Amino acid sequence: MKIGILGGNFNPVHNAHLFIADQVQQRLGLDEVQLLPENEPPHVDAKETIAAHHRVNMLTLALANYPNLTINLSEIERGGKSFTFDTMTQLTTQHPENEYFFIIGGDMVDYLEKWYKIDALMNLVTFVAVRRDQSSELKTSYPVQIVDLPILSTSSSYIRDCIATDIAPNFLLPAEVLAYINQHGIYQ
């Protein structure tokens, strides 16, 4: 099977995440795209995040009507820092029959050389970069497949800021996810 992987904090999941996953799945003819919530970001600038069970519950609600979009809990279940190399080594070992496509934003292309064990990772996956700024030229010495999509500039931090200031971020995330956030008093 051809499997796309879209990693992220999903704090919370929003419509841009879903749009990217759906469009890459369709345009590349992937069997499915798995949304992969990270357990603990490996970056130096650690992000504040909510409990994993809330992020997973929101993903479950968001993906309920999209059978080609699923959740992969590998990093949550493994615990610790979430390095893409470790995750993809685990997945390719468990499922050698699958071909994996790792989806990143175009802004991440410049940083690929800094990724943990990037050269070995390139042997495990095909990188797919979503260009969200049509004027930018994505240059890298690594083989990366480019998918051009319209710009959806929403972000999880913008949604969290809206909620914290009593502004409902309607139409930026699925209504079911917003209802869950309100029901559990998240980000307030």
Provide key terms for this protein:
single chain, 188 residues, alpha/beta, 35% helix, 18% strand
What does this structure look like?
The structure is a single chain. By secondary structure, the chain is of the alpha/beta class. Helices cover 35% and strands 18% of the residues. Strand 2, helix 2 (52-63) and strand 3 form a beta-alpha-beta unit. The chain is globular. The model has no long low-confidence stretch (mean pLDDT 92).
What string gives the helices and strands in order? EHEHEHHEHEEHH
What's the shape?
globular
Number of strands: 6
Cross-sheet strand order for the largest sheet: 3-2-1-4-5-6
Helix-strand category: alpha/beta
Low-confidence sequence ranges: none
| Sheet with the most strands, sense and barrel status | 6 strands, parallel
Task: Measure the end-to-end span.
Answer: 41 Å
Question: What fraction strand?
Answer: 15-25%
- Estimate percent helicity: 25-40%
Q: With helices defined by DSSP (H or I, 4 residues minimum), what is the helix count? A: 7
The pLDDT mean sits at 92
Radius of gyration: 16 Å
Topology:
Elements: E1 2-8, H1 15-28, E2 32-37, H2 52-63, E3 69-71, H3 74-78, H4 84-94, E4 99-105, H5 118-122, E5 126-131, E6 144-148, H6 156-164, H7 175-184
Parallel strand pairs: 1-2, 1-4, 2-3, 4-5, 5-6
Helix pairs in contact: 2-7
